[in-house]
Design brief:
The chain is of the alpha/beta class and 166 residues long. The protein contains five helices and six strands.
Length: 166
């Protein structure tokens, strides 16, 4: 047996049916679509059409809600920050913010800001400048001798202007 002599078993590969090639073949004339009517013609799109009656997907009420003001944080655990300090990716005593976390490789994207969570232990003194932090994480940072400063984002410009005028 040679490589150029290898073939599929008889009947393993079926040739495709050629439709609409004259009345002499089995799928000629109507092409297997039956006779007449909208479905026998090309360009038919009747999914959901109920004969002029209001379709069910429009009769039923819409469900669900998408919050346009949802804040999508990138999350970092204190244990990862401690490990990065031990590996030399972050320096103890310096200000840790989103940019320094990206440079250290702890996060890949800064969506709407960085949120620090309390999973893991922290022994190094660090100054955090992040968008959000959990209470337990803040307590751990302050216990280690560090500080936490939160970024202030102005979401509603109209409301902020009114407060400034007063």
């Amino acid at each position: 047996m040679k490589l150029n002599e290898i073939r599929d078993n008889q009947g393993a590969r079926k040739s495709r049916t050629r439709v609409c090639r004259g009345i002499g073949c089995s799928k000629g004339k109507t092409g297997g679509r039956g006779q007449k009517g909208q479905k026998s013609r090309t360009g038919v799109s009747i999914n959901g059409f109920e004969g002029g009656q209001m379709p069910i997907y429009r009769r039923l009420p819409m469900r669900g809600f998408k919050n346009l003001f949802k804040v999508n944080y990138t999350e970092v655990n204190l244990g990862l920050i401690q490990k990065a300090i031990e590996n030399g990716q972050l320096k103890e005593g310096e200000k840790v913010n989103a940019v320094s976390l990206m440079e250290a490789g702890l996060i890949s994207k800064v969506r709407d800001g960085v949120k620090v969570l309390s999973s893991g232990d922290l022994s190094a003194k660090i100054d955090l400048f992040v968008a959000a932090i959990s209470k337990a994480a803040q307590e751990k940072v302050e216990k280690a001798g560090g500080s936490v400063e939160l970024e202030v984002k102005k979401c509603f410009k109209g409301k902020d202007k009114k407060k400034e005028e007063k």
